[in-house]
Amino acid sequence: MRKSFLLLALALLPVACARNKEPELNIIPLPLGIEYVEGRCDLGDGVIVGTSDSLLLPAVAYLERSLKIDDISTDGTVPVTLSIGKSRPGQGYRLSVRPSGIEISGGSYEGVVSAISTLRQILWDNKRNIPAMVIEDSPRFAWRGVMLDVSRHFFTVGEVTSLIDEMALYKLNRLHLHLTDDQGWRLEIKSYPELTGRGAWRAMNRWDSTCVRIAGETKDPRYALPEDRISNGLYGGFYTQEEMRGIIRYAMERGVEIVPEIDMPGHSLAVLQSYPQLSCDGKGGAWGKNFSTPLCLGNDEVLSFCKSVLGEVFALFPSVYVHIGGDEVERAAWEYCPKCAERVRRNGLGGAENLQAWFTREMEKYCRENSKVVVGWDEIASDGLSEESVVMWWRNWSPSSLKTALEEGHPVVMSPSEYYYLADDQDNNTLAKVYEYEPGSEVSLPYSGKVIGIQGNLWSEKAATVERVGERMFPRLLAIAESAWTQPEKKDFDGFVSRLPLHLRKLDEAGWSYRFPDVGGVYDRNVITGETTVTLEVPENAVLHYTLDGTVPELSSPVYEAPLVIKDSCELRLRCYNSRGVPGELRKVVFLRRDYLPAIQSEPVLSDGLLARWYDFAGSSCEDIDKAPLNDSFVCRNICIPDNVSGNIGLVFDGYIHLPSDGVYAFYTYSDDGSGLWIDGELVVDNDGLHSREEKTGSIALRKGLHKFSLRYFDSNGGILEAGMTDDEGRHIPFSEEMLKH
């Protein structure tokens, strides 16, 4: 289990200082190169910001406002000069800090804003007196994106612009707004007023009910539906076109481009319920087997609707890019629709399954006629589009869609859900997983130039408030920012973690929540053999509240200030709060007072490794795995997913574990999806259920010798399985081959 960011930073500090005598700069993302020169620049008497380029006047205003936030006067004498240097890389910059003043030169407006972001972070570290230096910097990828889903839950103009502020600070330059989906239409379209008159509002749905239930059960206001988005019993909201123009202007000043997404032909229930005639049955659509009813592609009125909507979007958004979705389309309605059948016949499409590709080509043609470039999810990769259309690869379990996109010549934005979807639950491994993923590692060398960027996506089904969005996004978004900007050979996770504490404090000051590291010092399941003193490791900037009676900790609950004495079985609940009193994740820790379990007295003759059985399992619980058909059985010398195992995976490992001495032993599993570990028939690690990568831990008191061992695991679409032991510091210790027998 990883330590808190503070402890890691302190541990790494002496090493960093010994390696480099120059001042440590806590810049994220890490620049390409820093050269220190003699002297320092004293800004104590303030600065005067100027430029001779009228195009940079918005950047001057942005820098002046930013400096005031950072407590630097802009009525001083130290010159800060902004310019555009045509010889520089388009998004690159040069930041020169001398005792006499500061010069910023960017290859473009965006490059200048990136230099401003670097300067601001240097000022955080050094206040008004900063070391003289020259930074030459440019990004690895041109597209450094963030997607915010404002359809599942609506976020206000102020909340969106606050996110843009953070994006600019970390050199993220594309804000992809997911404006439409089944759950709500969020952009005013003047030619179709019912899209927001009706489509922007809904009665409480399943996800809303889930959020409300969690808010009540866990006393967590981050899940509660914001009251200012409820009107006449309906929940929602939308942006007027004038409000969206304001967001766009705000973003442009900060070097951020807004990319709108209008989802079609699927994810369109909000459209169909506003204009039922656009559905195949004329009744407004419904949920199919897996996804919602799509637009009726045999209906000419649908084409007129889509073009009219896109026409208003083209006029509103300066970006050359327009995202049209294209994912997760339920096609069954087309199979039985006379209009769709006629469209198939008239266009020689061969079947309803080819309607979507035809439709996407029609929309691409319309976009190109209006000097716009189509962006779509990777389902569009095989739709026969022109090479300029951009594919966002999100289905990491479908490498064939990435391969097709590249072979068809499309620029690709890497957005694999396993690493860059930010809605999933987290543990102390998650940040490292995101940071250490190498975008484009799936791409062969001839196509590497087609990868134009990466993007983190925040789907908001379980994020009704901006506090919940912040806890989902940060600090993972900072890891994505560094991967998007910094060359891979300069990346280092330990160094990144050592730079994080300053940035987390600044996020807090800006009103953003972020995920605290796990409280250290305990496992999820803890066996004690007598009275035990428990010392907890509290994350930096957090106030830890706890209860020992199984109730949910609140601000009125005891604050952890000294080690706890645990005498008997109990349930310890932990929750960190930030400086604004916003709660973090609720953690349940169980203590069980138990005697040592005896070893097997008469040891059988055994062989190395565990007996493994692979079942064709497509369920959701470990206990059901061996009810499925058996595919194969074999011996494994360690816990892993064997190379020959794929598809629907249900694995059962059985055997024995040999322990060298009496003791309380701790175990872990790290899996996607579910897993469980049993010793002598007792569940020690419960990591069951459908979930993304997650680590769970547990301990048990065991006598020296041989004990029965069992581990179960399941997944489909390709997961991960790790298991082993942990020491008192939470470090993973792999099972040795001598320990596991069958």
Defining traits:
742 residues, alpha/beta, Chitobiase, domain 2, Immunoglobulin-like, 8-stranded parallel β-sheet, 18 helices, 26% helix, disordered N terminus
Evaluate the radius of gyration: 28 Å
Overall tally of domains: 4
The CATH fourth-level homologous superfamily of the largest domain:
Glycosidases
The CATH level-2 architecture of the largest domain is identified as Alpha-Beta Barrel
How much helix, percentage-wise, in residues?
Answer: 25-40%
> In terms of structural class, how would the helical and strand content be classed?
alpha/beta
Mean pLDDT, to the nearest integer, reads 93
Low-confidence stretches: 1-20
Briefly note the CATH topology name of the largest domain.
TIM Barrel
Main-sheet strand order equals 14-8-7-19-18-17-16-15
Determine the N-to-C terminus distance. Answer: 29 Å
| Number of helical regions | 18
Describe it for me?
The structure is a single chain. The protein is α/β, with parallel strands linked by helices and 742 residues long. The protein has four domains: 33-137, Chitobiase, domain 2 (2-Layer Sandwich), CATH 3.30.379; 143-509, TIM Barrel; 525-593, Immunoglobulin-like (Sandwich), CATH 2.60.40; 610-741, Jelly Rolls. Helices cover 26% and strands 27% of the residues. It is built from 18 helices and 36 strands. The strands form eight sheets. It has an eight-stranded parallel beta sheet with strand order 14-8-7-19-18-17-16-15. Strands 26, 27, 28, 30, 31, 33 and 36 form a seven-stranded antiparallel beta sheet that branches. It has a six-stranded mixed beta sheet with strand order 1-6-4-5-3-2, with helices on one face. A hairpin with a 2-residue loop joins β12 and β13 (234-236). Mean pLDDT is 93; it is low at 1-20.
